[in-house]
Amino acid sequence: MTALTKLFRTTTFRLSLTYLALFSAAAIVAIVYIYWNTTVLLSRQLNQTIDAELKGLAEQYRAGGLDQLVRIVAERSGTPGNSLYLVADSEGRRLAGNLSAVSPELWNSLGPVEFVYQRPATGGVEKRLAFANVFRLASGYRLIVGRDIEDRRELARMVRSAMLWGLGVMALFGIGGGYWVSRKLLARIDALAETTRTIMDGDLTGRLPVTGSGDELDRLSESLNLMLARIEQLMAGLREVSDNIAHDLKTPLNRLRNRVEQALREPYGEAAYREVLERTIEEADGLIKTFNALLSIARIEAGAGGENREKLDVSALLRDVAELYEPVAEERGIELRAETDAPIFVRADRQLLGQAIANLIDNALKYGAPERSSGNGSRPEVEVSAHAKGPIAEIVVTDRGPGVPVPDRERVLDRFVRLEASRSEPGSGLGLSLVAAVARLHGGILRLEDNEPGLRVVLALPVEGEALLNGAAAHMATGAEIRPA
Amino acid sequence: MLIVDRMLPKCDGLAVIQSLRTEDVRTPALILSALGEVDDRVKGLRAGGDDYLTKPYAFSELLARIEALARRTSPEEGSTRLAVGDLVLDRLSHKVTRAGEAIMLQPREFRLLEYLMKHAGQVVTRTMLLENVWDYHFDPQTNVIDVHISRLRSKIDKNFGNPLLHTVRGAGYTIRDSAH
After folding, report:
1. How many angstroms separate the CA atoms of A116 and A128, rounded?
2. Which positions in chain B have a beta carbon within 8 angstroms of at least one beta carbon in chain A?
3. Which residues, listed in sequence order, are joined to residue B51 by a DSSP beta bridge?
4. Domains of chain B
5. pLDDT tens digit sequence for B29-86
6. Maximum distance among all alpha carbons in chain B?
7. How many beta-carbon contacts under 8 Å exist across A and B?
8. What's the ipTM?
């Protein structure tokens, strides 16, 4: 596409052309209207003047007869001007006046008529337009009074040419102006397109130029820049997550590979090979689990599981999941207690909420044992409970472990984030991310608090029929009281 | 035994199962699908599928489920008394005995043993146990099932010479009388 066709295709240029056409049409209509009205007005005035003069001369004729009329007409014809007179007998012979030959058309007309007459001029005769009326005298004599209107024809010609010139100039300015404005605009659009292309090529730090004039293009650029900033931030987050995924999955894959490699090198017996293969399967299962957890989080964050929500009793579900983990707690020497009130109903996906509670209990059992040094002989305990606080159902899981330091409380909800203290335990760093995602999906929130000592995790969900809590997240984070919305 | 993929070239595998069910064909059907949402699973089972396995799957998982489904049609399904070796479970009185000696089980342990014994001789995966005994369709992070199994094992096998409950590494568990 050449630069010119590109220009012709711009909206601005097309708009200028459209406006040009509209304005030209309007101008033509206005000029024609004015011209037409003026002509009509002038004709009427001329007609009246001629009528008045005819009447005056008729008076003279009645008073003084033909002789007086001839005398007055001869006198008036003598004075210079554009008045035309003729007094003629029934044969058309001129008795007085400055009109020579008269066409039969004029001669026989009964009202005012336009006609062309000849007038001596420098270098011959010239044909001029005139306007006249006829008065019939006695015995076929005629009195003709008229005016030369050649000047008016001249005026019409001038108006016409002025109109054409005007239109020409208008078109010139219109097209020129359109071209100029379009080119200016096109230059800015091209700059925007250029920047967009560099951003598309991967340079997310690029921003659209803002001229500072505050016009609509500037405002658009500002909005797009905000969007780009958000995208850049999201991309950075995404990159961090994928980096983490790569890192966290590489470690077990390496371990798996090394074990198999070692088994191949050593002259093992069949039983030992079996052992290695079985452990390889276990390791692979662990990897698949991590992937499943990642996929679940992604699905939940995309809003999946929305259709499967049902009214369910949080207390019952909590007891149910706690029962599932009870033998695990016992094996670890931890006392797992479930304290639940009367039924609390929420609208939730049983599987997702069950998994969220399972993850919380799992975490508490893994990381909730107090450090050996602080052991005072009593059994470490993990307590799960459910309470209804007005419109909010709270699922609380507490432990007596090292807890999570305040600065890390937001961070541990991110994918693959594991605190140093917990590195010794197996885990993917995805458990709390999934709980947070489930909380968000159900319009609730997840917050970590101090159990003095230990960690207190609160999963707050709106009670069945109440408004979502997400909007109130800011208050919840600070522990402020929430009133029903 | 039917193994049906959901995403067939021209139609949804569910439609196939549905039309078979309306023709009163009762052949057990296992649905295999990449659509792994809970909703999809519910839809699959409602359409007449007997089990639902999400792709990608472990081969042992598929085998175990096929075996479980194939057995489902056997006459043992309705019997009130299950026996493996000298271990006997009475589904009506909820009593379990081994070599005539009563064993006290908690309700969940009873259901776990019941499920294992219903599929005696077959491999039962952890996922199958979680789905059928607890009705959970998610992955608990710790292998809670293993702990439940070891607790059950200590009750039914510990004081008896011949262990019945075996671990199949990489796959799951099986209950069988190995003395035969």
Report:
1. 5
2. 36-39, 42, 58, 108, 134, 136-142, 144, 147-148, 150-151, 169-170
3. B30
4. 1-57 (3.40.50.2300), 76-180 (1.10.10.10)
5. 998 888 766 677 878 888 888 888 888 788 888 888 988 888 765 555 567 888 898 8
6. 58
7. 70
8. 0.84
